Amino acid sequence: MTENTSTNKINSFQKEKNKDEMRKQIITFALMIFFTMIAFFAVGMGISSMFVIPLILILAIVQVGFQFYYFMHMKDKGHEFPALLIFGGIWVTFLVGVTFVTIIWW
Amino acid sequence: MSHDHSLNPKTMPEDPAKATMEGKHKFLGLWFFLGGETVLFACFFGTYLALRNSTAGGPTSQDLFGLDLVFLMTVLLLTSSLTSVYAMYHMKNNDFKKMMLWLGITALLGFGFLALEIYEFAHYISDYGFTFRSSAFGSAFYTLVGFHGGHVVFGLSWLIALMVRNAKRGLNLYNAPKFNTFALYWHFIDVVWVFIFTVVYLMGMVS
């Protein structure tokens, strides 16, 4: 009996913890929708491309950060390997991007 | 019997997806895969960036792209990412029915996205004659965006297979890692889409 009650207590604690986590996820989602809308509005209003392109790229990077750290839980414990793998991938992305954008300059 | 019992415990552990060794391996394996996927899409993005102005006299990105459709597609895919977070939330609360409900909503939103993408491609092909062979821009565009669409098709097939196969099993430590693995993959599809709508569509309409 005592065992049962103690597990129930842990369960309600866990449920509350999960609920708290879900609240953070919804805030994350709202921010992501907000960033998306800023990016589309900025392009739709036709502001100079010198300003708009860096702006939408930064918004995309922030949004992807939210996706990785909140939706995909990279902020949680035990995600050292995932972080290594993803940042490895991002490093290659950077190299490939620089290579292909500069190769057409000549 | 004992094996079955260990996968169906009376009280679910805090994180059922990573409670077994198999679950831990699936989790790590998927992240390895996603690291590789990042490199794959990096190559497609690099190629697209280099070739996006090589239109060979055909339609340019400014002729083709429209904000409304892309915004709708973005909202559908982003919302489907949130609904799969909801599904994993109910998985952690050991509520199988609600998890399946939210996974079903995720699938519907994914199909909505796919339908819009098919409509978009059909519109480019029939109204502008813009195909894979029109120009280097055409090839790079359809390879990048089409491959992302292919990932959505694969993700939806995966999700439906999981839902049908586990419909009568209920949630246990055997299938929890499978659902969690799918959810991570589905978020990654949205990660790629964020860069597609920014780099391909929005930057294509600006410059």
Can you walk me through this structure?
Chain A is mainly alpha-helical and 106 residues long. Chain A has 2 domains: 2-75, no CATH class; 77-106. Chain A has helices spanning 2-44, 49-71, 80-102. In chain A, 84% of the residues lie in helices and 0% in strands. Chain A contains 3 helices and no strands. In chain B, α4 (67-92) packs antiparallel against α5 (96-128), α4 (67-92) packs antiparallel against α7 (176-206) and α6 packs antiparallel against α7 (176-206). The mean pLDDT of chain B is 94. Helix content of chain B is 78%, strand content 0%. Chain B is mainly alpha-helical. Chain B starts with a helix and ends with a helix. Chain B has a single domain, classed as Four Helix Bundle (Hemerythrin (Met), subunit A) (Up-down Bundle), CATH 1.20.120.80. Chains A and B meet through α1, α2 and α3 of A and α2, α4 and α7 of B.
SS-based structural class of chain A? mainly alpha
What is the gyration radius of chain A calculated from CA atoms?
21 Å
Order of SSEs of chain A: HHH
CATH topology of chain B: Four Helix Bundle (Hemerythrin (Met), subunit A)
Mean pLDDT of chain A: 88
- Report the order of strands and helices of chain B: HHHHHHH
Low-confidence stretches of chain A: 1-8
Helix content of chain B: over 70%
Number of separate structural domains of chain B: 1
